[in-house]
Amino acid sequence: MISVLFVCLGNICRSPMAEAVMRHKIAQQGLNEKITVDSAGTGDWHIGKAPHEGTRKLLDSWRISYEGMLARQVGSRDFVDFDYMVAMDDSNVANLRKLPGGEDSEILKFMDLLPDEKLREVPDPYFTGNFEEVYRLIDAGCDVLLDRIMKEKL
User: Fold this and answer.
1) Catalytic (active site) residue 13
2) Cα–Cα distance between 99 and 112 in angstroms, integer?
3) pLDDT tens-digit profile of 31-88?
4) Beta partners for 104?
5) What is the domain count for the chain?
6) Rg (CA), the chain
7) What is the CATH number of the domain that holds 48?
8) Which of 8, 56, 72, 142 is catalytic?
9) Which pTM value belongs to this model?
């Protein structure tokens, strides 16, 4: 089983959106038995909470399920358990590097999947309010990541 972890700051906006979108794409490809996806935050403020209302509304509009998703904090064990660790911005990468096991682990910055985009970080809609822009980036990046996983691991 190939495993992917999306990481953002609080695990209520960007990373759960990416988790839900990626799960949806995996299901569409019939790969549920081969790829698993999760998300986590580097901070602990929202542990146990459902995704942000803006994320839920946007996913509902696209008929993408987020059922059962609750925020959790990333831990050292995640560096062992996940094949792909994907961070939403430079701050998330830096925070992951500070964790035991993170200093030498491969961490992919999400926007590196989209080299033609001007933005180099996925903006945090918790602060910007622009969930549509984040969805556009996540949808495109998840397509690239899924294609990469299929070429590299399947």
Assistant:
1) no
2) 22
3) 999 999 999 999 999 999 999 999 999 999 999 999 999 999 999 999 999 999 999 9
4) none
5) 1
6) 14
7) 3.40.50.2300
8) 8
9) 0.97
